[in-house]
Task: inverse folding
């Protein structure tokens, strides 16, 4: 029987495929509209996300929501947001390569059920894993990369923008490019009758 995204989420909630399961409060599976054609992928949950079970709910998440709102996107309406790893790495360290590999089948499952047309990589870790290992995010953010019909765009991580606010205008430009691409492809579910 087709269990869909909810079935995948239920399975993910009991995942023990890597050591990150030991200290988690919540598995942070994802949030948003499963009909969306735009998926955003971050690195992994931080403290707030682990406590609440939702991606990007801390200060970085508030900034992300503002960037989305500036281009008429909303985490509950017309995008889907998730992370490379679904459980918090201790002390917010980068997820280890083996943790990323262990967690990737969940992202692949989300991807094949949601079937986005555009994927935005939030930060270096997601961009290296999903676009190319040698990506230079400070130089290449805002560019679209095509792989098997999927458009992927890296942008700076919201936490990096909080540390380095002078990068915010560059990130804003990326979101404007995202909006343009959505309009060009006609893939905003708000305008497609979904
Ligand atoms: N940073 C991420 O990469 N993802 C989150 O969900 C929160 C912070």
Result:
């Amino acid at each position: 029987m087709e269990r869909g995204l909810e079935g995948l989420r239920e399975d993910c909630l009991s995942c023990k495929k890597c050591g990150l399961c030991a200290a988690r409060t919540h598995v942070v599976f994802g949030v948003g509209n499963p009909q969306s054609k735009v998926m955003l992928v971050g690195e992994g949950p931080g403290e707030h996300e682990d406590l609440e079970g939702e991606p990007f709910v801390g200060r970085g998440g508030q900034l992300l929501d503002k960037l989305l709102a500036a281009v008429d996107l909303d985490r509950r309406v017309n995008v889907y947001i998730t992370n490379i790893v679904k459980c918090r790495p201790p002390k917010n360290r980068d997820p280890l390569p083996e943790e990323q590999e262990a967690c990737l089948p969940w992202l692949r499952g989300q991807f094949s059920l949601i079937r986005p047309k555009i994927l935005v990589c939030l930060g270096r870790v997601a961009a290296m894993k999903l676009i190319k290992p040698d990506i230079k995010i400070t130089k290449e953010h805002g560019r679209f990369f095509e792989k098997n019909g999927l458009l992927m765009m890296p942008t700076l991580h919201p936490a990096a923008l909080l540390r380095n606010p002078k990068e915010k205008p560059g990130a804003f430009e990326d979101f404007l490019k995202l909006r343009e691409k959505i309009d060009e492809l006609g893939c905003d579910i708000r305008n497609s009758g979904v």
